[in-house]
Amino acid sequence: MSFADLTLAHWHTLDLPAARRLADDAAARVGGRVTLAETVPGPGGPLHRVCIERGGQEFALVPGGTVRLGFDPDAWRPTAEQAASYAESLEEGYAYEPDIRVHLAGQLSPVRRVALAAVLVAVEDEPLEGPPAEVPALLARRGLRMPSADEWEHACGAGAGTLFRWGDACPLDEAPYGTGGPGCPAGPRLAANAFGLRIAYDAYGAELSAGSAAVHGGDGGEAVCGGYGSLLAWLPLATAQRNPAMAEFVHGPDGEGLWEEFSTRPVLDLR
Looking at the DSSP assignment, which residues form a beta bridge with residue 48? Predict the structure, then answer.
């Protein structure tokens, strides 16, 4: 089977032995080895989670195909706690749209269907090794590349259409950062996603994709440090979050010397 035909829909139909055979094939193609092959609960039903180690770095197999991305704020119903948190942020001047759905529409990518190839995506993000414009060439030396914004979003959501990769709600009484422990419970954000990625796990993170229009998986702690409110502090971890203002900043002259504060999540193509 060609990996060009490995769609998320087809991946759902395979049993674990068949998925393992494809994992071994993928590992052989990139000169790696399979370190994990298991079946876990996922959006749309049980999903196979496969990880491959190559050159000391671990990657997760992310099936492609024509997938639904983006978020529809009009179809979303905030919890009472989320609505109250946003109202408080609005009252304190940290939000400017009276309707939370309008706020989300300005921050999140719209619903659309896109065609993506199956790829291997790094389980962990890694700090940038240079200014954003230099990163593609630096990664290419290792046979890697930056993900597109669509690839990042698909890898994060794994087919989920919810606000966050784990669902529409977030634990507003917990901090959206840190590694767990007293005063900072782990919650759903520190668990690997359905594909096995550690992604959208800390609001102090900020991952760049190819291009200059998006920052994913955190806002560098801006909302937390600014005291914007609980919901606004969690929203940078939303799957479809693009953070256009931060993207403009990091790729503009004002952010020129701050590239070390950002990371990216390398992609390894399957030929």
Answer: 39
Helical ranges in the chain per DSSP H: 8-13, 16-30, 80-91, 100-107, 135-140, 149-157, 222-225, 230-234, 244-250
CA atoms of 107 and 86, how far apart (whole Å): 14
DSSP 109: P
Domain 3-269 - what CATH class? alpha beta
How much is the pTM? 0.96
**What is the mean predicted confidence (pLDDT) over 186-212?**
94
Three-state DSSP class for 164?
Answer: strand
CB 112 within 8 A of CB 70: yes
Q: Tell me the CA distances in angstroms from 78 to 49, 95, 127, 231, 241, one per residue in order.
A: 30, 16, 34, 10, 17
Indicate the domain borders of the chain: 3-269
d(CA 20, CA 26): 10
Residue type, 227: G
Residue 131 backbone zone (phi > 0: left; psi -120 to 50: alpha; other: beta): beta
Collapsed DSSP state (helix, strand, coil) of residue 225: helix
pLDDT tens, 132-172?
999 999 999 999 999 999 999 999 999 999 999 999 999 99
